[in-house]
């Protein structure tokens, strides 16, 4: 996609304003990107029409091509469409604040309940009670009980002999009596939407009057998930969505479809089976993922004001083409990184993401250190810069002397260079922008 995009971006170089004509190619690429991300077809059409209407006539920023300008508008629109960063549950009500978890079977209701229970506990230090009304499988109640121990919140015991509405009544009563701040109610799902389930949830909802009713949606279900959410939203009141299993290879487009079709905010995403694998929904991250245009997006969004674009672009291109990363590139790279926000953060991010934990010593690469790096590299011959492997003992001594540094400094720099070269190899496909995305995220 990136290649296709940059091709169409390059083709259009005339500046001025966005016109139907000068964004034609880019629109096609954006449409492809949305479809590739598995955004529902009807949503793709409506979305693109809306953005197009907004974009035409828009003045083009001097440093951008019309295509880039358009992509920028698309990205903003994606973020707006998917809602504000929604990082809080509404708990402002006379206690107990009740949160109802609903959705089909196996989508991750019980797991999400535990994750969110833990999140509320850590964030708000509230007194929490959880209860299961899933009487159809004895294991379901047990499952929640086990999870309650793991997250260390209180569990209200229920049994398969009771009916859900009775359990709910008792749990609420108990929560009121014992002054719980929050009551989380788990419900039973079914494999498919059926009337009995809807009636049951509806009865629980009417009785408990929850301040939040979270629809749990399995992102692996793709378009089915969207259809399902549509029906739930029509039949029951829903205050927000939790998108689970986003760690699978599901497409991000579902987030946009979900929001467009239900109009309800996505509050959290589940990112794994562990109880800590829960994230607040960040529309910006998803927008980047949907567009998938790692290079394009970050080059225009993040680098625009901070960094010399042409240098970064050249470097990204070189790396992509398999160009041998050398010390000249290294110098450009760390200078650009500095402008964006510090190497350490990036290294942290990057290695966390890649679950590798090399001990990379970029620490304290401040202005002073950067000057040193520059001095050292300047004292090298062109050949040394291109082929740092040849820098051995006597060369090191000469370079240290020439740059007013110590041999240890030269060694350290060479080690850092090797480290970053290794990274560059790993991320050849994403180039610098992946790093920058790492920083942004
Ligand atoms: P429920 O039937 O809706 O209550 O679903 P469960 O909470 O029992 O979850 C069903 C399965 O999905 C379990 O194996 C969970 O570990 C798994 N699961 C839930 N959320 C996630 C997630 O975000 N990522 C992954 N990989 N697995 C998840
Ligand atoms: Mg369950």
Automatic annotation (TrEMBL):
GO terms for cellular component: signal recognition particle. Its EC number is 3.6.5.4. This is Signal recognition particle protein. Residues 265-278 form the SRP54-type proteins GTP-binding domain. One of its GO terms (molecular function) is 7S RNA binding. Keywords: Cytoplasm, GTP-binding, Hydrolase, Nucleotide-binding, Ribonucleoprotein, RNA-binding, Signal recognition particle. Belongs to the GTP-binding SRP family. SRP54 subfamily. The lineage of its organism: Bacteria, Pseudomonadati, Pseudomonadota, Gammaproteobacteria, Enterobacterales.
């Amino acid at each position: 996609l990136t290649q296709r995009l940059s091709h169409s971006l390059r083709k259009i170089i005339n500046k001025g304003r966005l016109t139907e004509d000068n964004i034609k190619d880019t629109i096609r690429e954006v449409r492809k990107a949305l479809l590739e991300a598995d955004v529902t077809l009807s949503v793709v059409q409506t979305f693109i029409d809306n953005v197009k209407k907004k974009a035409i006539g828009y003045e083009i920023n001097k440093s951008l091509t019309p295509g880039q300008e358009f992509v920028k508008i698309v990205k903003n629109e994606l973020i707006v469409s998917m809602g504000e960063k929604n990082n809080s549950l509404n708990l402002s009500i006379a206690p107990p604040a009740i949160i109802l978890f609903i959705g089909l079977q196996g989508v991750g209701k019980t797991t999400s309940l535990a994750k969110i229970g833990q999140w509320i506990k850590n964030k708000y230090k509230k007194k929490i009670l959880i209860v299961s009304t899933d009487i159809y499988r004895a294991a379901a109640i047990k499952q929640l009980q086990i999870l309650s121990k793991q997250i260390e919140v209180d569990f209200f015991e229920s049994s398969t002999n009771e009916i859900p509405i009775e359990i709910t009544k008792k749990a609420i009563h108990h929560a009121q009596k014992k002054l719980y701040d929050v009551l989380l109610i788990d419900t039973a799902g079914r494999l498919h939407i059926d009337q009995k389930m809807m009636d049951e949830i509806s009865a629980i909802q009417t009785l408990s009057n929850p301040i939040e009713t979270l629809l749990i949606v399995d992102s692996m279900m793709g378009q089915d998930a969207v259809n399902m959410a549509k029906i739930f939203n029509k039949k029951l009141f829903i205050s927000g969505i939790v998108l689970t299993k986003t760690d699978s290879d599901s497409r991000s487009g579902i987030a946009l479809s979900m929001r467009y079709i239900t109009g309800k905010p996505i509050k959290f995403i589940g990112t794994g089976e562990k109880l800590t694998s829960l994230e607040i929904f960040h529309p910006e991250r998803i927008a980047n993922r949907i567009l998938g245009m790692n290079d394009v997006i970050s080059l225009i969004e993040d680098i625009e004001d901070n960094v010399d674009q042409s240098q970064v672009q050249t470097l990204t291109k070189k790396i992509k083409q398999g160009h041998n990363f050398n010390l000249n590139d290294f110098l450009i790279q760390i200078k650009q990184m500095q402008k964006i926000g510090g190497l350490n953060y990036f290294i942290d991010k990057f290695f966390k993401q890649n679950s590798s934990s090399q001990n990379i010593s970029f620490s304290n690469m401040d202005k002073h250190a950067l000057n040193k790096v520059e001095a050292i590299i300047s004292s090298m011959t062109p050949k040394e810069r291109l082929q740092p492997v040849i820098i051995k003992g006597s060369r090191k001594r000469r370079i240290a002397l020439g740059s007013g540094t110590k041999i240890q400094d030269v060694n350290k720099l060479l080690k850092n260079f090797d480290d970053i070269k290794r990274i560059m190899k790993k991320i050849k496909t994403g180039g610098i922008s992946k790093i920058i995305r790492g920083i942004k995220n």
